[in-house]
Please model this.
Amino acid sequence: MSAGTTATAETFNETENKSPVIHQVFFWLKNPSSKEDLNKLIEGLQTLKQIETVRQIHVGVPASTEQRDVVDGSFSASELLFFDDLAGQKTYQDHPIHLKFVENCSPLWEKVIVYDSVGA
Model:
């Protein structure tokens, strides 16, 4: 590996550590037709905005957009969270409010997919 490559990798890592982190999560309910389960999940997701490192939150359900091969509307609910950096996202992961959410709501879902990203 050349010195230039190493410097670039180090620069990216420094930038990544200070870059905003986008945390996107999709949930599939065990009982997708249950409005009660969906409401409980959404209520639980809304509690996450109380965590001090969450800068923005969007909780949603599938939109009635045009059906195309690239659109996956099979999930029950989603959350989109914004953090200032990786440290803020780590604080969120370990926060008692997040842990309580997982404890209370994980029996409702059968599948969860998480996408975390930083700026390129």
User: Anything to note?
Assistant: The helical segments are 3-18, 35-47, 86-94, 96-105. The radius of gyration is 17 Å. Residues 3-18 form the longest helix (16 residues).
